[in-house]
């Protein structure tokens, strides 16, 4: 998948005096390409993208675009989801090393074995998984629609949920279901420090703590609002609060500040204050230079095995159909 050739193109030197915004815009128009960016990308990438969204929105836009090329400024599984939905289009990710620790915590052969050991269970997989995991899944979910999709199955339906134990626990707790959970997690969301959030709460008594459901349960429990990146953003727009402690990857604060310039956003601190652990090192591998190179050379490209693609498209389409019915 990761070839020397594509790595070479990723890091090709870019002339210092090049106006990157102009050059990217020119290439996107010439090549009929669409740039989709996740909220965890750097501000400059979010600002140049055609659409910025959460993982559900990225899949929805990929499914309906008429562009010939999709540039997915996000991580590998997001590019893979777009490629599964659009096998005949060219799907590019600026840096092919942009992986995901959560997807990595669920190797497909082990997950397939787990599924085999629990016959009769409906398999729900978070979108943060490889194509091979999606291929043994009944319905894919994102944090925007997980609750509603789980609740669309009759109570008592035996279910497996993978790979995020925190999101799975959270969905079990709010739905009263008892899904069997895969023991995976995201290294960024597991890092947030409860103690530091509580001490920030003392410093900013009127601030709301808003949290992504990939965080650990004690952080979720002290939160005023829990939701996907898109849900957190929407909440900050409509809430009367003027200050927010944001317990998710700090990239999302870029759009929060743009939408509500009069409000204050405080990134929740990680346990280790010497690192920038509230930034996803994978997401941040993409840069404007790599975005330019990827449009210029049409590399690195995402490929998905044909057999896997045919199986993996079914649970993704199911998610999109249910989400459309629910107006998500
Ligand atoms: P969202 O679906 O909320 O955008 O989350 C994606 C993700 O990777 C969270 O870590
Ligand atoms: Fe994956 Fe975590 Fe990064 Fe999201 S923040 S892409 S779950 S490693």
Automatic annotation (TrEMBL):
One of its GO terms (cellular component) is cytosol. Its main location: cytoplasm. [4Fe-4S] cluster binds at residues 100, 186, 280. Pfam families: NadA. One of its GO terms (biological process) is 'de novo' NAD+ biosynthetic process from L-aspartate. Its EC number is 2.5.1.72. Keywords: 4Fe-4S, Cytoplasm, Iron, Iron-sulfur, Metal-binding, Pyridine nucleotide biosynthesis, Transferase. Iminosuccinate binds at residues 38, 55, 126-128, 143, 212-214, 229. Its cofactor is [4Fe-4S] cluster. It comes from the Bacteria. One of its GO terms (molecular function) is quinolinate synthetase A activity. InterPro entries: NadA, NadA_sf, Quinolinate_synth_type2. Belongs to the quinolinate synthase family. Type 2 subfamily. NCBIfam families: nadA, PRK09375.1-2. This is Quinolinate synthase. It comes from Parabacteroides distasonis (strain ATCC 8503 / DSM 20701 / CIP 104284 / JCM 5825 / NCTC 11152). The lineage of its organism: Bacteria, Pseudomonadati, Bacteroidota, Bacteroidia, Bacteroidales. The gene is nadA.
């Amino acid at each position: 998948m990761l070839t020397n050739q594509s790595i070479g193109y990723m890091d090709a030197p870019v002339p210092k005096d090049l106006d990157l915004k102009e050059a990217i815009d020119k290439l996107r128009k010439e090549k009929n390409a669409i740039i989709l960016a996740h909220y965890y990308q750097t501000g400059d990438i979010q600002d140049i993208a055609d659409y910025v969204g959460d993982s559900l929105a990225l899949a929805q836009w990929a499914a309906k675009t008429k562009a010939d090329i999709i540039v997915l400024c996000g991580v590998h599984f997001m590019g893979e989801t777009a490629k599964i939905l659009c096998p005949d289009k060219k799907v590019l990710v600026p840096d092919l090393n942009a992986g995901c620790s959560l997807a990595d915590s669920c190797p497909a052969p082990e997950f397939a074995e787990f599924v085999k050991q629990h016959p009769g269970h409906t398999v729900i997989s978070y979108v943060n998984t490889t194509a091979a995991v999606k291929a043994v899944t009944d319905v894919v979910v994102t944090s925007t629609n997980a609750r509603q999709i789980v609740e669309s199955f009759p109570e008592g339906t035996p279910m497996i949920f993978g790979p995020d134990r925190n999101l799975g626990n959270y969905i079990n707790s709010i739905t009263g279901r008892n899904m069997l959970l895969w023991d995976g997690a995201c290294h960024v969301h597991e890092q947030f420090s409860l103690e530091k959030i509580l001490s920030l709460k003392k410093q900013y008594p009127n601030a709301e703590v808003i949290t992504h459901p990939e965080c650990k349960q004690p952080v979720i429990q002290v939160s005023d609002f829990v939701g996907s990146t898109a849900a957190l953003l929407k909440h900050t727009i409509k809430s009367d609060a003027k200050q927010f402690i944001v317990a998710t990857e700090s990239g999302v604060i870029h759009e929060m500040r743009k939408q509500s310039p009069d409000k204050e956003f405080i990134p929740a601190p990680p346990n280790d204050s010497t690192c920038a652990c509230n930034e996803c090192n994978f997401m941040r591998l993409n840069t404007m230079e790599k975005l330019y190179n990827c449009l210029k050379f049409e590399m690195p490209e995402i490929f998905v095995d044909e057999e896997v693609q045919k199986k993996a498209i079914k649970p993704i389409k199911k998610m999109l159909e249910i989400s459309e019915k629910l107006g998500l």
